[in-house]
Design goal:
Chain lengths: 207, 207
DNA sequence: TTTCCCATCCCCTGAACAGGGGATTTTGTT
DNA sequence: AACAAAATCCCCTGTTCAGGGGATGGGAAA
């Protein structure tokens, strides 16, 4: 079997160095290049073939989301694995919409990175199942309320500073309806006012 | 000159591997050990001498803050460098209170890590000056309003869901005074209501 | 068909908030 | 002493919010 050629993109030297070290321990992987930003990544891709690009989601100037879109356009055969911290996982759906085939949290072990690479190389979708979550992070996952799509929509608009009448006007619904959603949000988050609601929503990375 | 013996503590394998790679490139550094948590770190410290411990601030079970306090108590000669992401920098003052002599952001280059190690080893305080901030992070630093201590206090209480009368009662001041602080907060954050205020405060990691 | 969830809509009420106006006192610095 | 910032306090007003109560209709799943 040919080795899987991989490019890693991250603006943190420490992460690049760590990935270099980890990938060097995987026998079926050949490191095609390390890139500190999207420009370098595209340059490496043009100069030498790669099978998989592992890229951070949040980067200065051109984000991982934009990079994924570019790669999908110019190198449709190249597979993409997105990487982020647990706190930043809410962007993963955008990465997938822009062509990513896998997702890894930065706390992933070498074994999980291996598994992700193999799965994605075989054409499967790989989603990180991180077992090293801190108890605080675990608690967060348990406590995040399930919101309907309308509730999410109203939550975002409240967080943007819009009043009930403004939201009603924007969504072409009654003021009473907005108020109902707002009350449901307060109940679901178990809070008594908007301040607490927004604080919790921010804590859960919903806004 | 003797080599500086260093232990690195972080629950992310990728970061540990990255630090191993970077430290191996620094001639005056000897890696005394890698630890995935505070327990391992203390075990390594007891088994072999180290000059500096570089530890992540946020870790499961026993945080970097607690670890720093333990190290200061049991190994007062060992210097501590705290590490965090840019978003988590608000905890650095606690690390320093618990004995840390230096602070590095995780986006630091190998050169800056070198400099931090040398400074701290010479007994100086080292604070990371990260030049690779994303433009979004830079904008955040520029836009964070200067709050008085009372304003900060009131902000936290508002974010906790307390009403003006409740805050007034808690702080032994007039309802009008609380309202004044609240209005000043709205002005300083350039927002029109509490929802926006809390969202911004969360964005700036003030709550 | 029944049940459940979601979206929509309404009522009443008092508390809370935000926009505007103003003031005095205290504290810290030069 | 002079000055500026912070803390404290007050007024008026209308809007908004939150707590409580209720309803109907549509769509999906069992």
């Amino acid at each position: 079997m040919d080795k899987i050629r991989i490019i890693v993109v991250d603006d943190h030297p420490m992460v690049l160095e760590g990935m270099r070290g980890m990938l060097s321990q995987i026998g079926f992987v050949e490191l095609a290049g390390l890139a500190a930003n999207a420009y370098e990544a595209m340059t490496i891709l043009k100069a030498s073939a790669a099978d998989i690009v592992i890229t951070d989601i949040n980067m200065p100037e051109i984000s991982g989301i934009e990079l994924a879109a570019k790669i999908r356009t110019e190198f449709p055969k190249v597979k993409i694995i997105a990487m982020s911290t647990f706190k930043e996982r809410s962007y993963i759906s955008q990465m997938i919409q822009n062509g990513a085939s896998g997702y890894l949290v930065k706390s992933a072990s070498r074994e999980e990175i291996e598994e992700a690479i193999l799965s994605v190389h075989e054409g499967k979708l790989y989603m990180s199942l991180d077992v090293s979550l801190s108890s605080a992070d675990k608690q967060e996952m348990v406590n995040v309320p399930m919101l309907s799509s309308r509730e999410k929509e109203v939550l975002l608009l409240i967080a943007d500073g819009m009043t009930n009448p403004q939201i009603a006007s924007k969504l072409f619904i009654s003021l009473h309806t907005v108020d109902s959603h707002r009350k449901n949000l307060l109940t679901k988050f178990s809070v008594n006012n908007t301040a607490s609601l927004i604080k919790q929503a921010a804590k859960f990375n919903l806004i």
